[in-house]
Structures are given as C-alpha cells and as structure tokens.
Amino acid sequence: MKRKEKRTQLRSMGYVAPAMLVLIFLLVIPLFYTLYCSLYNLDYLVKGDFVGLGNYLRLLKDVRISKSLLFTFEITIISTLLSVGIGLLLALWVDREHGLFAYLIEMFGLIPWVISMMVAALLWRWLFNGDLGLFNMILKALGHNPIYVVENKNSAIIALIFVLTWRLVGYAMIMILAGLKSLDPVLLEAAKVDGATPWQLLWHIKLPLIKTQLLLSIIVLTVSNFTNNTVPKVLTSGGPNDATNVITLFQYNLGFRYYQFGTSAALSILIMLITSLIIVLYIKVSNYKI
Amino acid sequence: MNKTAKKAARKTCSALMLVVLAFLTTLPIFWCIITSLKTPQDISAYPPKVFNFTVTWNNYKQVFAQSFLQTAWNSVVYSLLTILACLVLGYLAAYGFERRRFPLKKLLFYIVVIGIPLSTGSSVLLIPNYLMMMKLHLTNHWYTLPLLYTAYNLPLVIWMLISGVRGLPREIEEAARIDGCSQAYIITRIIPPVIRPSFAAAALFAFIGAWNEFITATVMVNGYALKNIQMAIYDYIGFFGQEWGPLCGAATLAIIPILLVFTFLGKQLVSGLTAGAVKG
Amino acid sequence: MKKVIATLLAVLMIGSLVACSGTPSTNETPAPANETKDVAVSAGTNGEDVTIRMWTFLDPTNTSNGRSIALQKMIDRFESENPGVKIVVEPQQWDTMTGKFMAAATTGEAPDIMWCARDELFGVLNAGLLEPLENLFMGSWTQDQIDDVDDGFFRFGERDGKHYTLCLNKNCTGFFYREDLLEAAGLEVPTTFDELYNAAQVLTREIDGQQVYGLGMSFSTESNDAQAIVNWLLQEQGTLFNEDGTAKWANESGVAALEWIKKCIDTGVTPADSVNKTIEDIYTEFASGKYAMTIASAVRLGTSRANASFDGSTIQFAPLPGGTIIDGWFAGVYSGSKNKELAGKFLELMYDNESDLLWINDGAQAPNRKSTVEQITIDDSNKYLNSMLEAFSDGWLPSNTQAFVGWKLDLNRPVQAILTGETDYMKALSDAETIFNTNNNR
C-alpha cells in the first residue's frame, strides 16, 4: 500500500516535471551561477580572485546604491498604487457598462500594456520634449509656458511615475475586472435590497471579495515596476543628476558600462532577493493555499 | 423626464471619459503613426506638425526593403512556439499543483512564483543565461528564443492556469472517471474545453511577452535569419543615429498584429481570468 | 522519498554549478597563433565553403545607409576574389556588442572579425581575444605600407610592439555650425572658448518666430561623450588622467570648464534643459533649427544634413577649442577563430585603398590612409574632411595600457550636479572622480 502511494506520488510529480525542468534549467541554475559569479572579481568577464562577500560589501557601502534603492521603492510604490487605483476605477466603470462601450474601455485601457515599452518610452520622451513635443505644443496653445519635463528633477520623477503608471493601468484593470465579474450577482442584489448604498456595496462587499485579484495585481505590478530599467533608461536616462537612477539601471551599467560583472551579479542577487521577498510576502498575506 | 435627462447626461459623461482615456492611452501610438508618414524634414519641423504635413510612404518602403518581413515571420513563429509550449507545460504543471499531492510541492511552487518577475521583462539573469546557453551551444538556433520565452512566461501561465483548474468543480472529473474515462482522456479532452477562457488569457500573456521581448533577443541570437521583430525596430536606433521615420514605421507595423489578436481574443481574456477567479 | 528527491535536486544544482563555473575562467580559449593557419588557407583554396563571421553595428542589407552600402561592396569584392569564402555580417547593438564579444569568446563562439569600441579595447586585449595582425598579413607589410596607416588610432591598437587592430569609422567630437547664420552675423568660425561663447551669444535670437540658441550641448549620463568639459581639461592639462590612471578632474581646470558651461546656460545661449538631454535629442533639435551651433560627432554630419528642416548643406563641422577627443571602431581578428588568415585578409581589404575610397565616397567618412587623402578633392561641400583630418592628427586618445571605462559618461555627472545646483563645483568634480576611480578599481 505504502509502495503504491509512492508510485502515485511520483506519477503526480510527472505532471509538473516538464515545466519544472525548464524553470530549473533557465531560472534556478542561472540564479545559482549568478550567486557564484557574485563572489568573484569578474571584471571584463575574466575570472579573478575570490572576494567572498566583497562585492556585496562594496554595494552596501555605496551611498548611491542605497539612495537608488530607496528611490526605486518610492516610485514603485507610488506608481503601483496609482495603477491599481485607477485600474480599480476603470474596472468598476467597465463593470457598469455593457457591450461595445465596455469593450472599448477595455481595449483602450490595455493598449499601453500590449505595446513594446521601449518604443512607448522613446515616444513619450519625444512627446515631452520642450520645443518639439506635442505636450508643450498643447501647453503653448493654452497660453502656458513650456515645461521641460525630463530635464527638471521633480518633473522628471513625475514623468517617470506617469509612464510607469500609464503602462500598467490596463493590466490592473483587467485583473480587477476579472474579480468583479466573478462576484455572485445574487449576493449583490441582496445587499441592494437591504438598502446598501453604492459606496457601502463597494467598500464592504465588493472590495473584500476581490482581495485576491487586488493583491495579485499589486504584486505583479510592484515586481514589474521594481525591475523595470527600460523606461527610466529611455525616458529620463536616470537623470538629471541621478534623480531617476533606479536600481536596475545601476545593475545594467555595472555590467555593460563598467564591465564589473562580479559586482553586477551581486546586485542582481540583491534585486532577486528583494523581489522574491515581495512575492513570498504576498503569498503569506493572501493566504494562498497550495 | 428627469430620469431620461439624467441618463443622457450620464451617457455624455461616459463618452467624454472614454475620449479622455483613449487620448491618453493612444497618444504615443498616434504620434508613432503620423511620424511614420512624414519626411525627415517634416519630422524635424518646428513647431511640430500634427496634421499639416505631406504624407509619404517612403519610411514603409524602406522598412520593407530590409529584412523586416523575415523578422516579422520569425516573431510569429517564436510567439506561436512559446504559446504552445507554455500552454502544454503550464497546463500539466497547473493540473499537478492543483489536483495532486507529491513531495517538494511547496518548494517547486515557490520556484514558479519567484519566476514571475521574469515575465515582466526583468533582465537580471541575462548574463548568466547567456554564458550558460553558449556553453551548451544553445544560442543562435531557431529554438533559442522560444525556449527562453517559454521559461520567462511559464511561471505566470502556470499561476493563471492553476486558478483556471481550481475554478473547475472536482465533480466533473469524478463523473468522467465513473463513466470509465481514462486519466489521459480527462486531461486532454474533458478539462481543456471547460477552461478554454483561461487558456486564452494565458496565451495572450505569453504572446505579449514573446512578441515584445527585445533585450534577450539582442544577446542570444545573431543574424537576420533569427532576429525578431523588435530587433528590426531597434535597428533604426543605430550608432549613426535614430532614424525616426522608419523606426516609427516598423513600430507601427509591429503593433498591428497585437491589436488584431486583442480585438478577436480580448473578450476571452476577461472571461478567462474570471473563470479562474472563482475561488482564486 | 522526499529526502531522496531533495538530495537528487541538490546534486543536480551543484553539478550544474560546477559545470558552469569554468565559464568565466576560459579566457585561455584563444588557440596558438599558427595552429589553424594552414587549414584555413587550404579550406579557401580547395573551394570548400568557408564562412567568415563579422560583428559590427552596420547592416550591409540596409540600402539607405552609405556606410552599409560601402561595406556590402567590399564584401562583394572579397567574395569574388576568394571563391568559396562567404562573409557573414551579424549586425549587433553597438553599445553592448563589445561586452557580448567578450562573453562569446569565453566559450569560443565569438565571430572571426570583431569591431571593438575604444574604451573596451583594453579589456579585449587583456583577455587575449585578438590576434596580432603581424601574424596574419602585417608581417609582410613594407615600412611604407605601415607608415601609410600609422597614426594615433593605429598606435592605440598596439601592445608590446604588436598591432591588434585597424581603426574603421574614425571619428571625433567637435561642433556643427550653420555657415549661413555665421556669415550673416559676420562671424568667423570660433577657435577659442571665448570666441565660441561670444559667437553663441550673437547667434542666440529669434528667427521667424522660432527661438534659436547659439550653442547646443547635452549632458545626459546615458548619452555619448561628455562635452566641453573634456576639451577644457585637455586644453589645460593635456590629459584627463594621472599617471596612475586615476581621474584628474577636481582641480582649477575642471572648475573653469564648469564655470564656462554654467555661463552658457545662465546667459541663455544654451537652453537650461540641456542638463538631461541626450545627444540624440540634440541632433533631432538641431535638425529642427533650434541651434545655430551644436557640439556633435563628425560622423553625424551626413544624417544631420539629410534631416535638416532648413537647407542642410549649410551645416559644417569644426573641431572644438581645447583638445579634441578622437574615437573609432577598432577592428581585429578573434584569436580563437578557425579562419584567422582569411579573416585577416578581409580586414586588410576593408582597409585598403579601394575600400578607403568607398568609405569616403559612399559613407561620407574621413580617409583611413594618408595616401588616400591625396586622391580626394576637397571643396566647399566636404571641407569638413579637412577639420576631421586635422583633429585626427592631433586628437587625444586615452592610454591603452590601463582600463579606462565610463569616463566619457562620468564626466557628465559634475555638469548635471552643478546645473541642478546640488553641490559646489569642486565637490561635483571629486564625486565624479570617485565614481570613475571606483569603477576602474583605482
């Protein structure tokens, strides 16, 4: 009997084995390899001395790294909350509408997510250009002085948050909408009959029930924004004066600009650790059962 | 009377909001499309020309004169292979995680979950991946990019399909088993049709991931025969400058398939996610 | 059971770790120089198909780019002269391709011919990834032939008396000016920083309702070479680095340079938004007529003329005051290549007199060889060639005995720092020094 159970369990494992092999091969092994690299001096990809945690110490000592990490957390949190907030509003809106109109909202909302983000960031940079951009052309038509968006510290940060938010609003919308659509109409009707105001309905019934979808979109968005280096690189080039220098841009430059692949690997490990922590936290908070 | 007026006002308001939404979300695409129709001189014009320019098709001619069609075809193949592999592997894994018990389940599941950032374009593992793939002579093949894209998108696909399978009552399976269906039949014939929307949603996610990927592609493959469509776009951001016209032309062309797919499968996306969300 | 599988998994992971761990240390991949020689040549002559792979950022199938057209013609000539040999260009992203080459070389997958970026050449040579050209074709060159190509670029590819590269796409940073605007204002082409500032001031005015600025500059830290400050530093101290390879920026010359830049911004001859502009922004804006003069790369003159919304033929190029930084792509033969002889042969062909004329005529480039200079006629339309040749002969390159990476971008940092008003001048410069020194392990 025991033997048979073992055989069944092994057979059960066969279901996940193919996918897990792919993931172990292309995710876990490179991760361990990165860990290994991070312990060496690997300038120009030429293996040098074993430095132990030296690369990590160097990173932790660098004030620019901690500044950049803090900044990355800030914009990640802000743009994620904005995306999810606006996404929630859009989802509630779509949920109320029907047919073609609802479909149009969905489609327009999703467009920023489905197009290549490097092209999008490049175009936004151009649209924000002080003299040649559409944004300032409109401002001028309204009688306003031009704003040099990516050349000014505060506006560069705002622009970065804007584009990050813009990119994932549709994603959040669709995730949350899925939650709203799955709500039991009978339950909502009953609440209405009991005299619940639309606000109460939202706050006490709908939101608690779509908690999982909200959390899932928050996590995916957080991780996506945290590891996004394309948008900062293209939109604001990390500037001015490091004002928008996110941590992944730092990591990329350590590798491809300074050829310090050991230190770059150490930073990769730190970034992976942080994102993994965020995700594990989500699993715990949402009580996801597996 | 009051009610109809209110209704009309609401409708107008909704329509206005839709216009604002459409404006904000499509602004870059709009700019991309009109730039692709301009001459270099009109592109550089000050103040910027929004409508008052002479339309030229030269940028598109230039795009097609190069290897664009080849790269577009490559991207179609890569995306289809990625979707296929993601769905088959992802579905099996999702079924296993949701319906079966086996050793190390938790650990394996956490590996899946930690892999989710990969699908969001994280490039932190790029260099180790490159070195390893090269060592094993896996770079520069037709399967190089689909393999990587499958690995990148698989975690999210598994996650979505777990929700899909979870939303399916166990009674269906049990009933089928009582009717004498084999396990293989249940897995291949009974369940997939029921959770088809989940498949569609997962496929769309994998498609977006594979179609828009750029950084891995520039590193992993060389030569026209293997380039993907995004690389064809970035060819116009060269050492000798950005050629805005053809760049925008190629980018516009690359968006069209995505919009087509979404127009036809968009409905499935929402219902697919919904189906999975019942107990998610 | 659980334990067994856990152990298996752990073994698998460790095993793979060990398997991969050799990767970074395989810089000894390069085979001895003469080993493959005979094989390669006989393969070519026997009529068996040999493929020579080359990495560059040029795409020879691009029929709208003059340099690509020139390259395709060279490939055609080589292939007709060497039946059975095929040149395959694998176009790469220019900013990451040298790093990718180093990575590819660790497993022997690197191309036969590589175009290396200037600042990365040290790392490439240090890893022994290039074959001395003396082992290939240069051994049989006469002194005259060597003299014909001998210049700063050539010597930059030299190590221990051997030459490893030939420089293609020679380039230098200077400034574009609109000749008609200078003439209308009665100005000569400026040759000192004072003259440059004064000219910029005169040229800053409104033309047909558009605000035109005197001098365009860009200081993005993701953009290309630092502007103005490097020329100042070179003018004052002749170099950017100390003997030991550390940065030599935080001093009076550096401060004077920053003050000059600040003056340009404060008086509005350079717009304030230059602080985070990339050089690409500047080219786009210059084409729109926003600037009368702008700091720019010589190799971009052709595209700027073609894209200008005004009469492009009025754009000319001149070197900046102070010292000029020169740059180029350093093409060499991969030391682990199986067809070094043939690869060398093609490299030599890309650099011969006939090809040089193609680079010049189709690609609008400056001559690579001294002997070619006499074969071209310089008139008003291509008088920028004179300025380029002048810059090439007395331009500055970093030493090739040490690694110098990131400096051209790091030097934008102090400019951004003082323009955002966050630090004083000396602090800004020493911060940049620290970043450079740390990243170069000094």
TrEMBL record, chain B:
Localization per Swiss-Prot or TrEMBL: Cell membrane
Membrane topology: Multi-pass membrane protein
Record keywords, A-Z: Cell membrane, Membrane, Transmembrane, Transmembrane helix, Transport
Pfam families with a match to the protein in the record: BPD_transp_1 (PF00528)
Chain segments annotated as transmembrane: 12-37, 76-95, 107-131, 143-162, 199-224, 244-265
InterPro entries: MetI-like (IPR000515), MetI-like_sf (IPR035906)
Positions of the ABC transmembrane type-1 domain: 72-265
Cellular component GO terms, alphabetical: plasma membrane
GO biological process, one term: transmembrane transport
Domain of life: Bacteria
Family: Belongs to the binding-protein-dependent transport system permease family.
Protein name, per record: Carbohydrate ABC transporter permease
From TrEMBL, chain C:
Keywords: Signal
Transmembrane segments: none
InterPro entries the UniProt entry points to: Bact_solute-bd_prot1 (IPR050490), SBP (IPR006059)
Domain of life of the organism encoding this protein: Bacteria
Span of the signal peptide: 1-21
PANTHER family xref list: ARABINOSE-BINDING PROTEIN-RELATED, DIACETYLCHITOBIOSE BINDING PROTEIN DASA
Designated name of the protein: Sugar ABC transporter substrate-binding protein
Species classification: Bacteria, Bacillati, Bacillota, Clostridia, Eubacteriales
